[in-house]
Design a protein that fits this description.
Structural class: mainly alpha
Number of helices: 3
Shape: elongated
Largest sheet: none
Length: 84
């Protein structure tokens, strides 16, 4: 496995998921979805999704993409060493 390619895949997945979450917050859909998911799991938590903040959303997407890349890169390196 190529660590760089695996890092890109993991980074894109994690960053992409958080980009979708940011879009849901932007359009005001996130609270409704969160409430539904908790209801379906019979969980009652008084959590309120805050208003959209572009700086926070950008930071969230970039940081999770970077962490996903690093985790994928390290994971591929470990995989390659273990499976020689």
């Amino acid at each position: 496995m190529t660590p760089h390619k695996i890092g890109l895949v993991f980074g894109a997945l994690l960053g992409g998921f958080h980009l979708v979450w940011s879009v849901l917050v932007f359009f005001g859909i996130a609270q409704m979805m969160y409430d539904y998911i908790l209801w379906a799991h019979m969980v009652h938590l008084p959590i309120v999704i805050g208003p959209f903040e572009a700086t926070a959303a950008g930071t969230l997407v970039v940081m999770t993409a970077v962490m996903g890349y690093v985790a994928g890169y390290i994971g591929a390196m470990v995989w390659n060493r273990v499976h020689r």
